[in-house]
Amino acid sequence: MLEPVDSYGEAMLRDGPIPRFVHGILEYALGVLFIAAPFLFDFKSGSATGMSVAVGVLILILAAVSEGPVSLVNQLPVLLHVAVVYLLSIFLIAAPFLLGFSDEVPPRNFFIISGVLLLLITIGTRFRRSEPDSDAGKAAVRRGRTTDQPAPGADSSPAAGSPPQTGSRLPPVPGPTGRQEPPAPPNPA
Q1: Which of 18, 59, 115, 132 lies at a 20 to 30 A Cα distance from 121?
Q2: Residue 87 sits in which domain range?
Q3: Average pLDDT, the chain
Q4: For the chain, how big is the Rg over CA atoms in Å?
Q5: Predicted TM-score of the model (pTM)
Q6: Given pLDDT bands bounded at 50, 70 and 90, which one contains residue 40?
C-alpha cells in the first residue's frame, strides 16, 4: 500500500532495516576512513589524496551537525542530510573520472565502492521515527493546535458529567454564515 506524500518531502526518507544510530556511527567511521585512505592505500595522485581528505572532513562535519542520535549539534534537518548524502554518493562514484585519477586503481576503487556503499546504507536507513503518537502531535502543532484542542468546527461542548471548560485557547471559528463568531460560552448545568 502506498503512503501519501506529505508536503515536507518525507517521501525521500525510507523505513529501511538500518537504525539511525548505526547510520550515524557508520558515517563517522567512513569520514575517518576517507581521511586515512590515502595513507592506507598509498594513493599516488595528489587530487585523489586531497579529495579523499576533504570528503572525510565533510562527512565528519555532516554527521556531527545533522539531527540524529549521534549528532553533536543537531542543526541540519534529516531531510537535508539525506539529500546531501545522496549527492555526495553520486559525486564519489563520478569523482575518479571527473578529477582524472580513474587510471589509478586504489583510489578509483575506493571512491566508487565507498560511494555505492554510502548510497545503499542511506537508502536502507530507517530515518523516520516509529512513534505514531508523536507524529500526530507534530502534525497538530504544524496546524497551529496542540493535541488537547479540538479541530475547528468540531463539537467542543463538554460531555455530560464533565466540568465546564474555561479559558479556551481556540481562535474564533467561522460559523454557518461564514463570519467569524466567538466561541460559545460553556453551558451552565
Answers
A1: 132
A2: 32-126
A3: 79
A4: 26
A5: 0.64
A6: very high
